[in-house]
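User
New here, help please:
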Amino acid sequence: MTKPTTKLLTAATLAFALPAALAGAASAEAGRTTYSIEFRYDPAVSADANYRAFENKAERECVTTGQRPLALVVQERACVADIMERLVVAMGNAQLARVHIERHGRPAPMRDFASRG
């Protein structure tokens, strides 16, 4: 008899308040819009692959297509960076933190990753 396998996933749901310009075309109202994004860490793939998937998802949330003013591009990049830093802290995964440090040259703030596996 074959036992069903269960894939263990670590999930993080992050809530963000961002300028409406970065929250998508549906947010025409002025001010800030709050939304959440759910990320699931898949232990069946490498930390680097998980990080790339998370970064792609953050970019889909923050970046608009086509020509746009430089100021908006700067805000979009800051949005992605903010999401990735919050995600790394929320996940508390040492391998994910290592990938983040390798890519950005600095650790995500507010957590000691050495104590986590």
